Amino acid sequence: NEENFGVLHIGKDIVANPNDARLYTTSSSSLMIEDFIADQIEKVIEEMAQVSKCAVVSMPHPYKKEVAKAYIAMDKENLATNDLEELSTDTRTKEGAEAKYLLAQIEFDNKKYSECETRIMDYINESTPHSYWLARCFILLSDLYSVQDKKMEAKQYLLSLQNNYEGDDDIASRYVSVLSVSLSSIKQYYD
Fold first, then answer.
1. How far is CA 69 from CA 33, 89, 103, 128, 157, in A?
2. Is the dihedral of CA 54, 60, 66, 67 positive or negative?
3. Cβ-based neighbours of 21, under 8 Å, separated by 6 or more
């Protein structure tokens, strides 16, 4: 009964009870994540537009992050930055930690190296329980120093990560591959 549940799923279509904006927003947001995973980026943006019409409820953080990532995947970073900036103010949340990294990555990709370095250094000095995103920032900082021809600094950040990071995820493979390239370029530099 749609009055009891606020939302009725019919396939991927949603029939909403206008009296329950919160449930409508949550249900629509779940569909956005499904579409993002299925690489249907344009549908994520369409669904976001529908949800944003429901002004009674603000978009939950996990969904704002997914919409921002959809914009990034569509090469529309400028549309992602406002939500990412908002999320990045609290790096104690998973979404905030990832948002901080994504903003730094956008700056790096746009060759805004000074802004990227400042953002990463600020993040390093913040307290966050999300070591994965902090580690990704260390790798990005190493990439930044590599393109600035600061090979020794790049290597030091990767070695520090190698010696101190204890997570059980893809970070090790990321820094090992970057570190091997970094070490070979340092060796070529001195040869």
1. 11, 17, 11, 21, 27
2. positive
3. 54, 56, 57
What DSSP character marks residue 69?
A: H
Instruction: List the structure tokens of 46.
Output: 């369409």
Residue appearing with tokens 């996990």: 62
The C-alpha R_g of the chain, in whole angstroms, comes to 20
**Whose CA is closest to 136, among 124, 148, 145?**
124
Query: Residue 49 — left, alpha, or beta (φ > 0 → left; ψ -120 to 50 → alpha)?
Result: alpha
CA nearest neighbour of 53 among 15, 86, 24: 24
Strands (E), the chain: 7-10, 13-16
Judged by average pLDDT, the poorest of 63-77, 116-130, 176-190 is 176-190
pLDDT digits (tens, 9 = 90+) for 68-110: 887 888 888 888 898 899 999 999 999 999 999 999 999 999 9
